[in-house]
Amino acid sequence: MTKLGVISDTHLASPDATLERIVQDDLQGVDVLIHLGDYVNYSVAVFLMKNHDFVGVAGNMDPPDIRNVFPRKQILELEGFRIGVIHGWGPPLGLEEKILREFSGVDAILYGHTHKAVSHHRKGIFFFNPGSPTRSFLAQPTVGVVSLENTIQGDILPVKD
C-alpha cells in the first residue's frame, strides 16, 4: 500500500508551528507528500520537500518563483493508478467539471483551491480535495491522506489546534 499525504492552500508567508506539527503528526508515515498549490511563499515548499518524496503543483495565488518550479498540473502513476494533480481556478461551482476536462484516462483527481474538503467518486473518477489546514473559511481546517492499494481511498483529517 502507498499512502499519499495531501495538503493544499496553506497560504503561509513561511512555515509555522502548525504546519510543522501537521507534517510531523498528521502526515507522519506517508510515502509521498503532495501539495496542491497556493503555498504563497517558496519557503513553505522547501520545508515540505525536506525529508519527503514530494510532488507539487502551483496554485493561482502562487508567485512566479513557485510557478517557475512547479507545473500547473501533472499526472502521477502509482500502484497501477493514474492520478491527476491540479490546483483549480475560478469559482467553486462547476470546478470539478472544469478540472475533469484537464485530464484523460485518470483514476483520480486531487485538487485544491476551494478550501473545502471533498472525497467522493464521480463519473467513475475519485475526486479528492484536502481542504486547507490554515484558511478554512467556513469549515474546520483539514488535510488528507489517500491510500492506494486495490482501490483508492481518501481520509480527511481535521487539523487540531
Write the layout of secondary structure elements.
Elements: E1 2-7, H1 17-26, E2 32-35, H2 42-49, E3 54-56, H3 64-67, E4 73-78, E5 81-86, H4 95-100, E6 108-110, E7 117-122, E8 125-130, E9 142-148, E10 152-158
Parallel strand pairs: 1-2, 2-3, 5-6, 6-8
Antiparallel strand pairs: 1-9, 4-5, 7-8, 9-10
What can you see in these coordinates?
The chain has 161 residues and is of the alpha/beta class. The protein has a single domain (2-158), classed as 4-Layer Sandwich (Purple Acid Phosphatase, chain A, domain 2). It contains 4 helices and 10 strands. The strands form 2 sheets. The chain has a 5-stranded mixed beta sheet with strand order 3-2-1-9-10, covered by helices on one side. A 5-stranded mixed beta sheet has the order 4-5-6-8-7. The protein is globular. The termini are far apart.
Shape summary: globular
Number of strands: 10
The chain-level mean pLDDT equals: 95
Please give the CATH architecture. 4-Layer Sandwich
Uncertain parts: none
CATH topology call: Purple Acid Phosphatase, chain A, domain 2
Total individual domains: 1
Rg, please?
Answer: 14 Å
Question: Distance N terminus to C terminus?
Answer: 30 Å
- Which strand order do you get reading across the main beta sheet? 3-2-1-9-10
What level of helicity do the residues show?
10-25%
Largest sheet, in brief, is:
5 strands, mixed
Strand portion:
25-35%
What is the CATH class designation? Alpha Beta
Task: Please tally the helical runs, counting DSSP H or I stretches of 4 or more residues.
Answer: 4
Q: Quick one: CATH superfamily? A: Metallo-dependent phosphatases
Helix/strand-derived category reads alpha/beta
The helix/strand series, from N terminus to C terminus, equals: EHEHEHEEHEEEEE
